[in-house]
Specification:
This protein is α/β, with parallel strands linked by helices and 365 residues long. It has one domain: 3-Layer(aba) Sandwich (UDP-N-acetylmuramoyl-L-alanine:D-glutamate ligase). The protein contains 11 helices and 15 strands. The protein has a 9-stranded mixed sheet with strand order 7-6-3-10-11-12-13-14-15, sandwiched between helices. Strands 5-4-8-9 form a 4-stranded mixed sheet. It has a two-stranded antiparallel sheet with strand order 1-2. Strand 4 and strand 5 form a beta hairpin. Helix 4 runs parallel beside helix 5 and helix 6 crosses helix 7. The longest helix has 15 residues. It is globular and about 65 Å long. The chain starts with 5 loop residues before the first strand and ends with a helix.
Length: 365
């Protein structure tokens, strides 16, 4: 079928709704347009610090390795990793969240500023602690020796919630989609989600969530969700490992949230996409590349694109970043899921919380 471009708003964002066959040129067209689209990330901002050193002996004081420090590196974690992935894919990105009045918060702001990312919707709360994870890593194998966490998880105050929502109201009309990156550190609350969904609904802006099972009740009404299979199992109360289990869990999650699409990441088993809606099924029937129409959401299992798995830390942030940008650029959910799958396959070959560049993704496609 020849490519068709219709100048109408995509149901997932403000991109052009381009219905076509799956092809290399089609995917390059979608990925090539990423810089045109704008995404706001709302969520828990974390600072990830990596301390690298060599282990040559065991301590005489206790049976633990002695790490001879050789260097270190700070990276944005949590919602910050989703931000860095969007920036790497060259989408325009805003970030909303809260940090403490501390050195970890200052360091996060410094890194984001260095990437040219707006900090206007990041609120500093002197009563909070910026979540800060320090990993001691033995090189050259990059084995993690120990992780030290500094955090106090409590809901943000009513005053801070109001300030965040005021910023969201100013920004919502400037973006094509919103990603909620929920790491369970207190940023995502009933008040924040209610306010966000109200604002997004008025502007018809899609809201996607990388969920935390404990906050599942807050996600009803979002556009899409991207849990991993363990989180999906926790949400529904049974294991989601095999294809039938994942399918049962996904249909239950869609039924409870009413989301239009659901992407469950499954590690070495790849991804499973669920989608509901007549438009997508009609497109599938026409192109013969998607399952034909049927009752309930249709399901697609996508094998992993990873060639080598080095570290799965933060891979979910890469998935939701690539999936969201692809949807806003006019991709159908199966196309967006395949692009996200390739992006995840690249990032798991890197160490720690890492991101994928648009150039890497283009070359991999």
């Amino acid at each position: 079928m020849a490519e068709r471009v219709r100048n109408k708003k995509s149901e997932y964002g403000r991109g052009k709704n381009m219905a076509t066959k799956f092809s290399k040129s089609r995917w390059q067209q979608i990925i090539g347009s990423f810089p045109e689209y704008r995404v706001l990330v709302l969520g828990d901002l974390i600072l990830d610090r990596y301390l690298f050193g060599r282990v040559r002996r065991i301590s005489p004081e206790a049976p633990v390795p002695v790490v001879e420090l050789e260097g270190g590196e700070d990276r944005p974690g949590g919602a910050g990793n989703a931000v860095m992935n969007l920036a790497g894919l060259q989408g325009k990105v805003w970030v909303a969240g809260v940090i403490g009045q501390d050195k970890a918060g200052e360091r996060l702001l410094e890194i984001l500023q260095g990437q040219g990312i707006s900090r206007q919707a990041i609120i500093t709360d002197p009563d909070r602690v910026t979540p800060f994870k320090t990993r001691v890593v033995a090189i050259p194998q990059h084995h993690q020796v120990v992780r030290i966490d500094q955090e106090k998880n409590s809901p943000v105050s009513a005053e801070i919630q109001k300030r965040i929502l005021d910023q969201l109201e100013k920004l919502i009309g400037q973006v094509d989609a919103v990603i909620v990156s929920d790491y369970g550190k207190g940023m995502v609350s009933p008040g924040i989600m209610e306010g966000l969904l109200r604002l997004a609904g008025k502007r018809k802006v899609a809201v996607g969530v990388d969920p935390k099972p404990g906050n599942f009740s807050l996600y009803r009404g979002v556009s899409f969700l991207t849990p991993n299979h363990v989180e999906a199992g926790e949400i529904v109360g049974f294991r989601a490992e095999s294809d039938p289990e994942v399918e049962k869990a996904g249909k239950e999650i869609i039924g409870k949230t009413g989301c239009r699409s659901l992407l469950i990441t499954r590690g070495e088993k790849g991804l499973t996409l669920f989608e509901q809606g007549a438009r997508s099924r009609e497109q599938g029937a026409k192109t013969k590349k998607l399952p034909a129409p049927g009752p309930g959401p249709y399901v697609i299992h996508i094998p992993t694109a990873a060639r080598e798995v080095f570290d799965v830390s933060g891979a979910g942030d890469t998935v939701i970043a690539a999936y969201t940008l692809a949807l806003t650029a006019g991709a159908l959910p199966p196309e967006a899921a395949m692009i996200a799958n390739v992006a995840a396959g690249l990032v798991v070959g890197k160490f720690g919380t890492a991101s994928v560049s648009r150039k890497e993704l283009m070359e991999a496609i």
